[in-house]
Fold this protein.
Amino acid sequence: MKLLITGGAGYIGSHTCVELLEAGYELVVIDNLSNSKRASLDRVMEITGQRLTFVEGDIRDTSSMTSLLKAHSFEAVIHFAGLKAVGESSRLPVNYYDHNVGGTISLLKAMQAAEVYTLIFSSSATVYGDPETVPITESAPLSATNPYGWSKLMVEQVLSDLQASDDRWSVTLLRYFNPVGAHQSGLIGEDPNGIPNNLLPYISQVAIGKLSHLRVFGDDYPTLDGTGVRDYIHVVDLALGHLAALKRNVHRPGRHVYNLGTGKGYSVLEMRAAFEQAAERPIPYEVVARRPGDIAACWADPSLAMQELSWSAVRGLEDMTIDGWRWQSRSPNGYED
Ligand code: NAD
Ligand code: UD1
């Protein structure tokens, strides 16, 4: 079965490509390399011993996307391509709506022209805003507080309207919680540009000595130790969630929505302590003010994915930190090494 993977050179896309190739799928990846390196796909092929086809291109280019889709017989598209930095989205909203919303609409036009009707979309737990209760189920109220979050909500709406208008479509919205870690080979992982915004990449760079210490954004939240609690999920478990969704929903008309999380929350200080153990070195920290826009606690109720997809996350905190550290210590400068 042949698949088109948009944004497949990125962090989650590259890990998903490994699992898809190992499961026997034939892959074409399209990526404009705006936030990734071609080397990630070379490593994917090294890990799996299998080949994929790479096309450097932009999903907003509808005519090239249409030609690409028509040139192959794809059964489905897995759509990772997009911009994802929350802070940047408030500074550059037009850019975010252009890539995330405009890019998706361009992709959908091309899919319609080529008559490919199965799409799996990378959504985010950010669509739950500040949740009223945890764990969060798929039917919780949706909201957004920044252009990145709005772009995910808008795409969810576009896909839902499309599916309601034409029953040939199978649309799967995967709401990821906090992906962390790396493939256990240490050959692929997260390679952020500049100073990381997210917790685990920041901690890893403190551990490797690139950054002096972690700044903990607030210790006065109503949580066990006062620091923010999140549902961290190993990126390989997340990748396997895509396989499960694909197997179940390819050519199964409807709108399918799943939380991909572990169902367990860890605080910032728990994550720091776990990483300290994995890296066997101290991670100094100081507590600073809360980060604007942050919420206290967020974790998934992942039971629907278990019921419908027979999928659940199996890798624990130790796997997340040990695998993340293996990647960081092997490649302190990411794919530039
Ligand atoms: P990433 O930046 O590593 O991967 C995204 C890829 O898309 C990159 O390789 C980038 O070069 C490519 N891209 C961006 N705009 C493009 C365009 N117009 N045309 C073609 N390629 C384009 O990000 P990631 O962490 O792998 O995230 C993948 C998806 O999952 C994104 O849609 C993101 O919003 C979503 N998501 C990520 C997280 C997370 O914490 N990483 C959480 C929830 C949802
Ligand atoms: C962030 C985004 C979210 C996005 C997700 C995945 C914000 C407000 N939210 O989620 O929309 O879907 O990334 O990309 O940016 N922390 C520190 N020090 C740091 C970094 C983080 O204490 O240097 C804390 C945060 O306050 C939070 C936790 O660590 O409590 C996790 O933060 P982060 O990794 O940025 O993820 P989220 O905020 O959950």
In short: The longest helix spans residues 93-114.
